[in-house]
TrEMBL record:
TM region(s), chain numbering: none
Pfam families reported in the protein's UniProt record: ABC_tran (PF00005)
Name the UniProt record assigns to this protein: ABC transporter ATP-binding protein
Domain named ABC transporter: residues: 10-242
Listed GO MF terms: ATP binding; ATP hydrolysis activity; transmembrane transporter activity
Gene Ontology, cellular component aspect: membrane protein complex; plasma membrane
Keyword list, A-Z: ATP-binding, Nucleotide-binding, Transport
Top-level taxon of origin: Bacteria
InterPro entries: AAA+_ATPase (IPR003593), ABC_transporter-like_ATP-bd (IPR003439), ABC_transporter-like_CS (IPR017871), ABC_transpr_LolD-like (IPR015854), MacB-like_ATP-bd (IPR017911), P-loop_NTPase (IPR027417)
Source species of the chain: Ornatilinea apprima
Length: 245
């Protein structure tokens, strides 16, 4: 398979994922090709069962495609031996999931620093400053020493966003990061997320059911039945898409 261009942080070519159950095979993702540049924030949308989460899991190197290839920073991730893939994922990819998986007995600051400890083996003063900086940017300066259970849903989501960015990954993936939030908080969270992705020149992908959140993205990719159905990258088109929903 042809090597990917270094210009794109994420590149996929004809990616498919097949699930077999008994006699039937579901093509959960069916021939998806996409290219995402540094500093681009993508909204991945589509009806339930259209393959969004499966696609995200393949981009995160958590699931191996049945067909096709995913390149991150020009590296074909299915070609990496398992141990290298784990290290690659830890260094290059950040995640925010709906159930944000914060460690309950660590403080907000410790939860974010943990990613740096895992990556670097120890915490430098620069690391500590970086974790604090992101939490302040996300409006959590008064919550650094709180435990996750003492936070609201929106505050926990913001900690999860800080954690997904802190170790300087190339790619940041978010699966329904605003699912548990009211509209006003959801807007705030996605706006800060978009700003950080742009400022830090990451490739960001957010899966969302709430099309209104796409007002902060640079491109909308809509999946239907495992395939890319619609792609919009003009601001006016995106706003019209949101208003027609
Ligand atoms: N582990 C699995 N085994 C078998 N089928 C699966 C598995 N995971 C997903 N599927 C099927 O693959 C298809 C795509 O699922 P996926 O979760 O990726 O969709 P989605 O767009 O994220 O849906 P939702 O918006 O409801 O979260 C669905 O038909 C689903 O039933």
């Amino acid at each position: 398979m042809a090597a990917a261009s270094k210009k794109f942080v994420i590149e996929t070519q004809d990616v498919a994922k097949l699930y077999k159950s008994g006699e039937t095979t579901v093509r959960a993702v069916d021939g998806v090709s996409m290219r995402i540049q540094p500093g681009e924030f993508i909204g991945l949308v589509g009806p339930s069962g259209s393959g969004k989460t499966t696609m995200l899991a393949m981009l995160a190197a958590l699931l191996t495609p049945s067909e096709g290839e995913v390149w991150i920073d020009g590296t074909a991730i299915s070609q990496l031996p398992e141990a290298e893939r784990v290290r690659f994922r830890r260094e290059r990819i950040g995640f925010t999931f709906q159930s944000n998986n914060l460690v309950p007995y660590l403080t907000v600051l410790e939860n974010v620093q943990l990613m740096l400890q895992l990556k670097n083996g120890r915490l430098s003063s620069i690391d500590k400053e970086r974790a604090r900086y992101l939490l302040v940017r996300l409006g959590l300066e008064n919550r650094l020493n709180s435990l996750p259970q003492q936070l609201s849903g929106g505050q926990r989501q913001r900690v999860a966003i800080a954690r997904s960015l802190v170790h300087g990954p190339s790619v940041v993936l978010a699966d329904e990061p605003t699912a548990s939030l009211d509209t006003e908080r959801a807007y705030q969270v996605v706006e800060i997320f978009a700003n950080l992705i742009h400022e830090e020149n990451k490739a960001g992908i957010m899966v969302t059911h709430d099309l209104r959140m796409c007002q902060y993205v640079d491109r909308v990719i809509q999946m239907v039945d495992g395939k890319v159905d619609t792609e919009l990258n003009q601001r006016e088109e995106i706003l019209e898409f949101i208003s027609c929903a």
